Amino acid sequence: SSQDVIAGFLYAILILIVFHPVVDLIDNFNLTYKFLTRPGTAFEMSALEKIEEQLARLRIAKRSVLREEPAYLLDIDVSRSAPSESSRCVAVSCSNQSIRLYNRETLNFLREYSSRPGMLNGVRFAHTCDSLVFSACSDGTIKCWDIRLAAQKAVQIFSGYPSNVFISFDINCNDLIICAGTEKVEKDTFLVFWDARGNTDCAGTTREPLGVYSESHNDDVTKICFHPVKPGWVVSGSTDGLVNVFDIDKDNEDDALISTCNSDSSISFIGWSGKGYEQIYCMTHDEGFCWWDLAQLDTEEPITLLRIQDARDTVCIENDSLSYLVGGAYHEKADRLFLIGGTPTGKIHLLSCGADGLSLVGTLGGGHSATVRSFCWNLADESLLTGGEDAQLLLWRPGAVEKSLAKKETLKIASSVQKRVRVHNSSFKSRKK
């Protein structure tokens, strides 16, 4: 009937009016969603978010067995050029004047080297040879051990000058140059350099220095760090508060000095960051943090990216606190600098560093029972090695499950040993205020 025709016509108009915009809306939404979630857009999970998610999932995978002579674990490094992960080694500098070697994957103890009567400061594997490990020693030498040999004697000894007491060192990225920093003796503070190439077949061979820098610091040189890819660039930090960047390919110290940055406090850690590693950062013994961009040196832009007088006051951690900073690591894929801090009870806080400040990524608990003093981050598989005052060496991996969760108690070590280990002293904070 005509009434049915009219009713059908009106129904069709209603469908067009009501549903056509919805169909357009759905089509537009689908197109917008595909656009926003395509690779490289903000709605896709960013590389930074993925990294932060992995770090927040770190769990204990392995725990080293406590040695008969427990000691603080002060510095950690991992061999870089081993043919496989299973054959890589971990070297740990300990407060009992020894270097301990462990298997990287199992944390099984391999062997130990002693520096007695000198105190070891820092440990580094050669970049291109996974069998050579170096350490600075308070007896005025840099010692090199070949871990393939059963002998306990250093295969090379890089000697300093009679008054030198080395408290920091590093070896450059092509293993050609060693640089070590000294304690201040009377008015003298040195950066000492050696040619690292030499014959390791004859144990105990001694090498003399190439030369020194003596004008750029006026107090103990606490940290040395070569550039990751530029073999001639090195940064040094001192208790005088200065962070100096050098190009040692220049003819003299004055020409070599590229930049001097002032942290206004004693330096406890330094490192390189940013794309092309054109940024440097430092931490101080009173838990301050400074971050500079060397790419801005020849511009009118300020080189300071971030300056925090006391990180303990700026990082907000729910139901917890940040007691100290240990160090940092730059993640190339995420283009982000991450820091590690902790508490005296062994908790580890992972922090993300941005121009707007520090933010918490995650907290690792249930591992250490005392202050964490050292770490080594494998950014390829996001694993983390940590060592502390409880004499434990821990391997953390995303999503790992540990078979045994037995924690060790805090060690009590004679105060004379602590002269060479870093003390996180809260009195700095009260004195500043």
Q: How far apart, in Å, are the first and last alpha carbons?
A: 93 Å
CATH-assigned homologous superfamily: YVTN repeat-like/Quinoprotein amine dehydrogenase
CATH topology: Methylamine Dehydrogenase, Chain H
Task: Please give the number of β-strands.
Answer: 29
Measured by DSSP, the beta-strand proportion falls in 35-45%
Can you lay out the helices and strands and say which pair or pack?
Elements: H1 2-36, H2 47-56, E1 58-63, E2 73-78, E3 89-94, E4 98-103, E5 109-114, E6 120-125, E7 132-137, E8 141-146, E9 156-159, E10 166-171, E11 177-182, E12 191-195, E13 205-207, E14 211-213, E15 221-226, E16 233-238, E17 242-247, H3 253-256, E18 257-262, E19 267-273, E20 279-284, E21 289-293, E22 304-308, E23 324-331, E24 336-342, E25 348-354, E26 357-364, E27 372-378, E28 383-388, E29 393-398, H4 427-432
Parallel strand pairs: 9-13
Antiparallel strand pairs: 1-29, 2-3, 3-4, 4-5, 6-7, 7-8, 8-9, 10-11, 11-12, 12-14, 15-16, 16-17, 17-18, 19-20, 20-21, 21-22, 23-24, 24-25, 25-26, 27-28, 28-29
Protein name: WD repeat-containing protein 89
Transmembrane segments: 6-26
Keywords: Membrane, Repeat, Transmembrane, Transmembrane helix, WD repeat
Short description:
Helices cover 13% and strands 39% of the residues.
What does this protein structure show overall?
InterPro entries: WD40/YVTN_repeat-like_dom_sf, WD40_repeat_dom_sf, WD40_rpt, WDR89. The chain crosses the membrane at residues 6-26. Keywords: Membrane, Repeat, Transmembrane, Transmembrane helix, WD repeat. Pfam families: WD40 (PF00400). The chain is mostly beta strands and 433 residues long. It has a single domain, classed as Methylamine Dehydrogenase, Chain H (7 Propeller), CATH 2.130.10. 13% of the residues lie in helices and 39% in strands. Strand 4 (98-103) and strand 5 (109-114) form a beta hairpin. Residues 21-44 and 414-433 have low confidence and may be disordered.
